[in-house]
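Human: Not sure, check this?
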Amino acid sequence: MQTLHAATPDDYAAALAAHPRLLVDYYKDDCPGCKMLDMSLAKFAASEDAAGVALLKVKLEVIGEAFFRDLGLRQTPTLALFKDGTEAARLPGFQTPAQISQVVSQHP
């Protein structure tokens, strides 16, 4: 699974346009759940379900709190799965590798 990083809203938009299946990890540095989610994402990345899915890391401290609010994000971590540029699923809070796989497999 390819991992990308968005530092600006333009980076975010470009990633959505370039990747038909994109898992977006909205996170911040001082978030224990975010660190735990990183471990889940690493395990998910090694699974067959991760084939054809790119991961976009969007850090609150870099892209800005206003951007997060505009997306309606209320907590970190939050994962969102985009299919062809449209949000297909949003997973607030910590997710296990199995939960991530289940959502990704529901949106092939």
The chain has a mean pLDDT of 95. DSSP finds five helices and five strands in the chain. Residues 32-45 form the longest helix (14 residues). The beta strands are 3-6, 21-27, 54-59, 78-83, 86-92.
